[in-house]
Amino acid sequence: MAEDGSTQSASVWPLPKFHFQVKWDDTEVAFQEVAGLDIETQPIEYRAGNSKVFSTVKMPGLLKTGTITMKKGVFKGDNAMFAWFAEVKMNTIKRKSVTISLLDEEHNPTMVWKVQNAFPVKVSSTDLKAEGNEVAVETLELAFEGLEIENG
Fold first, then answer.
1. E strand or H helix at 80, and its extent?
2. 77-110, pLDDT tens digit by residue?
3. How far apart are alpha carbons 66 and 139 in whole angstroms?
4. Which long-range contacts (CB under 8 A, 24 or more apart) does 84-90 make?
């Protein structure tokens, strides 16, 4: 008899990544793609001069965050990303908390990435092509200082 899946637990399957939500300043922004939710530690190598072992010891060092890249369609009159980028002037930018949530079928968060002190470092407009039929897409890159992950 073939297995119909009725005996499997819901936790067996990995989460799909196509249903997500991005918020900042209590505003939801519809993005098509989010990438770069990275954080790493830079290893420190150390060896004491009187060590009998002829190799270094590695220890965790400073945390290093990447750059989040978000892409969205271009809409008439929507200049929110460019307006935020225009505020960047010699360390006077208002940094924002950004919440990225992976949603389930009922639109409830299952995984939440909370990004602290984010600010735009690059905004790219769409490329234009007379023979193309694609949607116009703009890109926003954010630098950030901290990342927390929560399970819903």
1. helix 80-86
2. 888 888 888 888 877 788 999 999 999 999 999 9
3. 16
4. 84/120, 85/120, 85/123, 85/140, 88/119, 88/120
